[in-house]
Known about the structure:
Elements lengths: L16 E6 L6 E6 L6 H5 L7 E7 H17 L3 E7 L8 H13 L7 E6 L1 H13 L6 E5 L2 H7 L4 E6 L2 E8 L4 E5 L8 H18 L1 H16 L2 H21 L14 H10 L8 H18 L5 H13 L15 H8 L12 E6 L2 E5 L4 H10 L4
Parallel strand pairs: 2-9, 3-4, 3-5, 5-6, 6-9
Antiparallel strand pairs: 1-2, 7-8, 10-11
Bound molecules: nicotinamide-adenine-dinucleotide and glycine (GLY).
Amino acid sequence: MNRIDPSPSDTPPAAAAERVPIALGERSYDVIVGADLLARAGELTAPVLARPRVVIVTDENVAALHLGALEAALATAGITHESIVLKPGEATKCFTELESLLDRLLARKVERSTTLVAFGGGVIGDLTGFAAAVLLRGVDFVQIPTTLLAQVDSSVGGKTGINAAAGKNLVGAFHQPCLVIADTSVLDTLPPRELGAGYAEVVKYGLIGDADFFAWLEDNGAAVLAGDTDARRHAITTSCRAKANIVAQDEREGGVRALLNFGHTFGHAFEAETGYGDALLHGEGVALGSVLAFDLSVRLGHCPAADADRVRSHFRAAGLPVDLADCGKPLEASALITHMRQDKKVTDGRMTFVLARGIGDAFLTRDVDETTLAAFLTDAGAA
Ligand code: NAD
Ligand code: GLY
């Protein structure tokens, strides 16, 4: 691994940008959050490069809108760069594309001192991070996330990977980036539906551990979605700080990191049943899954009903799905439970759920039996 400056934190970002340190010993790095950072990507990236050579991996949508700005910024800082542009969409996170990407990188004669730059949403970040983990037995990579979901979640914490026939994200590696640059301005070109899906992951941090942040989102969520610069920066830095805190305690998900999967056990099952596509985006599945996690918490006597009502109201106000009927197709409880049994949190055949005692107070439990779950899903509208 090439990490010439283990403490990039010594270089403070300019005003109006904030730095969130991810404290992982020799794998520590910074998340820089602010407006118009793409123009500064060269100066921000240069200190973490072993050599001034990078290969950018991006997708066609992001390339058309923003690649020119990134390439210009790298050139200004004297960083040699090449770009590989992939098809957008979840289907790109697969074995075939991984092999093709690795072959294209090797054809460019990358060396261990070459740094990859993942420039895009979670699909590009996960695929490029995994390629970086296995290329030449591991090269460095920088994340420049361009979706809200990627800025608050997937670019931070080092989970990388691809999908397998058996399910999503089942092949991968923990491989931390050496820098994350979250430019809030690039979110201006994001389709509103993608922005909303990312917003569900922002709300997640309030739900699992920060009731004040959830209350702030109730007041300011509309501004975050509408593009208010300060509101966006606050929402993203607060989310990244929350994630940094959890990842620093439990980098490889032996325990507390599983709280970050709040809403995901249900959400992944809805995504699987709706085909992992436009019918239900990942973040939309997380929103619906979070509502159900609160409803189940109420039903099991863990949580006041008023909290579940606030959660449902907030996601509904953000235009996110809150009822099974919002998935657009009938769902069967038995099919959903089959998907839940494949969740990565299953241990000794028992599902692990993330439930809540209230807003800001999530906990892990294995005490939800399948009969209770089936009855709950049926009452929620599943066939
Ligand atoms: P995505 O990467 O597919 O991006 C969504 C769409 O937005 C794509 O069409 C993309 O081309 C487009 N896009 C990206 N940036 C844009 C911009 N600035 N302007 C206009 N269009 C833009 O989806 P995503 O929601 O960012 O990520 C979802 C993926 O992230 C899933 O594969 C999920 O499994 C993964 N994920 C990983 C982690 C992790 O910890 N590694 C966490 C959460 C999600
Ligand atoms: N997105 C969940 C995690 O990073 O652990």
